[in-house]
Design brief:
The chain has 302 residues and is α/β, with parallel strands linked by helices. The protein is built from 14 helices and 7 strands. It has 3 domains: 38 residues, no CATH class; 206 residues, Rossmann fold, CATH 3.40.50.300; 43 residues. Bound molecules: guanosine-5'-diphosphate (GDP). The site of guanosine-5'-diphosphate has 14 residues, from helix 5.
Length: 302
């Protein structure tokens, strides 16, 4: 399909064109750049990306699904990107999430995409960033990025989002001990899910006084759709505030920069590997060889 036609279909929200565009960009096909350049800027600006992160088992998938449901009730088209940075699987990844999303499977206004490391590190921020833009251009007013785990790479991807939500649950408080202090500086909203289980109030207490008293800490029972409406209201209220005070624009710029760095490193890795293959640095210490190579690549004549 010619790129113009693909773009036209994509902007009409056609699911197959959206999936095709994402794949082309992921494969770094040349046509991918044309697609990215041709996306409707107004839709990109108008869409909201929400990062949902937290340790495995706290109920992120259930919560994401409940949020999708809530958005669909309001007839809002939504995209979901499920990212698993630790998984090398390509298509088997996050099967569970997909199955849980199945009751949205026939809804063409729910666009779901799973992503793993594809057997290599790097490039995931860039891939997730491109995917959210394609989804937004296709008419998704909201894009949810769900990441597994709370390691650095998960946090990196979550930080692509305009708003980040950290999900915890009773029994999972220890997972965040290290980052407990000032946790609300890192995330915008903190959700205590499984509020139906004993230990929810203890978890709130353990988070410290600042968190306990904040209106940015919400309780949900995702499995029963409780607190989801309030969570969505909280998210949309934050969006409005961030758009007003300039933080929205600022974060977009930061995430663009991050994606650019990510993409650069990805491209560099391939090129350097190629260079070394074609001109193996003879008998040089790898540290020295790296310096020499970088000097050669980055040297700007003038
Ligand atoms: P994830 O690994 O963070 O994505 O967690 P899942 O969404 O897969 O949920 C893990 C388990 O917790 C599943 O068995 C869910 O049914 C259950 N679960 C999710 N939300 C709730 C909740 O609000 N209350 C209770 N009791 N269980 C829940």
């Amino acid at each position: 399909m010619p790129v113009d036609q693909l773009l036209e279909q994509l902007h009409l929200g056609d699911p197959r064109s959206v999936a095709r565009a994402i794949s082309l960009v992921e494969d770094q096909a040349e046509i991918g750049q044309h697609i990215m350049q041709g996306l409707d800027q107004q839709r990109l600006d108008g869409a909201l990306t929400v990062g949902i992160t937290g340790p495995p088992g706290v109920g992120k998938s259930t919560l994401t699904s409940a949020l999708v449901e809530q958005l669909r009730q309001r007839e809002i088209r939504v995209g979901v990107i499920a990212v698993d940075p630790s998984s090398p699987l390509t298509h088997g990844a996050l099967l569970g999430d997909r199955i849980r999303m199945m009751h949205h499977a026939l809804d063409r206004d729910v666009v779901v995409r799973s992503m793993a490391t594809r057997g290599r590190l790097g490039g995931l921020c860039a891939a997730a960033g491109a995917t959210r833009r394609i989804m937004a251009a296709s008419g998704c007013r909201v894009v949810l990025i769900e990441t597994v785990g709370i390691g650095q790479s998960e946090m990196d991807i979550a930080s692509l989002a305009d708003i980040t939500v950290l999900v915890l649950a009773p029994g999972f408080g220890d997972e965040i001990q290290a980052m407990k202090a000032g946790i609300l500086e890192v995330v915008d909203l903190l959700v205590i899910n499984k509020a139906d289980m004993p230990g929810a109030s203890k978890l709130r207490f353990d988070l410290g006084r600042e968190a306990a008293e904040s209106d940015r800490v919400l309780e949900t029972v995702a499995a029963e759709n409780k607190g989801i409406e309030e969570l969505l209201a909280g998210i949309l209220a934050l969006e409005a505030a961030f758009r007003k005070d300039g933080r929205f624009r600022q974060r977009r710029q930061q995430s663009r920069d991050k994606e650019t760095v990510d993409r650069c490193l990805d491209l560099l890795r391939d090129r350097i590997a190629g260079l070394i293959r074609n001109h193996p640095p003879a008998d040089m210490d790898p540290g020295v060889a790296a310096e020499v190579l970088l000097e050669r690549i980055l040297h700007i004549p003038g």
